[in-house]
Design brief:
about 240 residues; alpha/beta; 8-stranded parallel β-sheet; about 40% helix; binds pyridoxal-5'-phosphate
């Protein structure tokens, strides 16, 4: 087994322990492998270990990687699934709409509208999460918690998007309790949207929370999808990454 395959097994075991500690079923939390800055071979090694969902931050880098995977010998079904977890500027919405399965970082109606308009008719709706800023000031990406319900209700009605949940990227917190506290704020936003409801909200089921360093706290707070990069692929070197 490759090192990446081993790491995936270890992360899955960590997730299972976190679920057990939180009184949740192991199947309740999905694993997204964050492959940003890592090449085709790394994605392939993870896929051979059974991983199918991949997260990418840099849109052009991701699209190039998807094309490279297409050119490789086919992997057993199900197909790889690609999640955009980086910031989406207006000039990148078309690439996201045409190539990704999910976009976690929708924080403005204008971006959501473009993604819906540009989603090709032959593809299923783009799965989206609202990114919420639970711990930062105005300079940080994500909608303010107080504005999240209104944004979610508007996004949920866009014809070519399917609103699936809430995502957040809190700053690193020093210990388990502090990590839980900040993740619970994202959970509260998720609950507020679910309670408010509205047209198009019937698929709302995803809380995208937690990374390598805080996945236990995220699972404790109710995460249904953890985004793990370095715990699977190793330390990143940003020198080679395209912006
Ligand atoms: C890079 C990244 C991750 C993965 O972080 P690790 O600490 O390497 O697990 C998760 N989510 C987002 C949004 C990221 O940008």
């Amino acid at each position: 087994m490759t090192m990446i395959g081993n790491n995936i097994q270890e992360i899955r075991a960590r997730l299972a322990r976190a679920c057990a500690a939180a009184g949740r079923g192991t199947g309740e939390v999905a694993l997204l492998a964050v492959s940003k800055t890592f090449g085709l071979e790394s994605v392939y090694a993870a896929a051979e270990a059974g991983q199918r969902a991949f997260g990418e931050n840099y849109i052009q880098e991701a699209v190039d990687k998807m094309a490279a995977v297409q050119a490789m010998p086919p992997l057993p079904a199900p197909a790889l699934q690609w999640h955009c977890i980086g910031p989406i500027q207006s000039n990148k919405t078309r690439l996201v709409a045409e190539h990704f399965d999910w976009a976690h970082t929708v924080d403005r109606l204008k971006i959501a509208q473009r993604l819906s308009d540009q989603r090709p008719a032959h593809l299923p709706p783009l799965m989206v999460c609202i990114q919420v800023n639970v711990d930062g000031g105005d300079t940080k990406s994500g909608v303010a918690p107080a504005e999240a319900v209104a944004l979610a209700q508007a996004v949920a009605q866009l014809p070519r998007l399917r609103l699936r949940g809430v995502m957040s990227i809190p700053d690193p917190a020093p210990d388990f309790e502090a990590q839980c506290a900040v993740h619970r704020r994202a959970r509260a936003v998720f609950d507020a949207i679910a309670t408010a409801g509205g047209p198009g909200l019937e698929y709302f089921d995803t809380l995208s929370l937690g990374m390598t360093g805080d996945l236990e706290a995220a699972v404790h707070a109710g995460s249904t999808l953890v985004r793990v990069g370095s715990g699977i692929f190793g330390a990143r070197s940003y020198g080679a990454a395209a912006g």
